[in-house]
Amino acid sequence: MLKTIINMFGNKCPNCNKGKIFEKGLLHFSFSFPKMHENCSNCGTKFEKEPGFFFGAMFVSYGLGVAEALMTYFICMPFFEETFDLRIIPIIGAVILSLTLVNIKLSRIIWIYMFKEYSM
Fold it and tell me: What InterPro entries does UniProt report for this protein, alphabetically (predicted)?
C-alpha cells in the first residue's frame, strides 16, 4: 500500500511502476493544462481506457479539494478568536486555488490506479 502511494506521487505507471503518466512531474507548475502520455513508454499500458474515462476524476478532485479546505480550516482555526471567523474563507480559497494543478494531476493518477488491471 505504501509503495502504491509512493508510485502515485512519483507519477509512475500503475502497471510497470517505471513509465511516467504525465510528461512533467506532479509538482511542475505551468499555465497550460497538464500534458498526459497516451501510453506508458515502458510497458505500453493505455492510460485513457475509453472516451470520457476521466469524468470520474472530477469527483476525486472534489474530494481532494474538500480535504484540503478542512485541513486548512483546522490549521488556521487556532490563530483566530472565534470558532468560525470569516477571514478564514479567503485563506481556504487561496490554498485551493494554489493547489488546483496538483489536484488535476493527482485526481487523474488516483483514478487510473483505481482501475488498474491486476494479474494473478
Answer: DUF983
Q: Where are the domains of the chain?
A: 1-115
Write the pLDDT tens digit of every residue in 5-34. 888 888 888 888 888 888 877 776 767 777
- How many other C-beta atoms are found inside a 10 Å radius of the C-beta of residue 80? 13
Q: Are 47 and 89 in contact (CB under 8 A)?
A: no
Q: Which three cell numbers stand for residue 3?
A: 509503495
3-state secondary structure of 7: helix
Compute the distance between CA of residue 44 and CA of residue 39 in angstroms, rounded to an integer.
5
- Taking a C-beta distance cutoff of 8 angstroms, is the pair 57, 108 a contact? yes
What is the rounded distance in angstroms from the CA atom of residue 58 to the CA atom of residue 116? Answer: 18
Query: pLDDT (tens digit, 9 = 90+) per residue, 71-105?
Result: 999 998 888 887 778 888 999 999 999 998 889 88
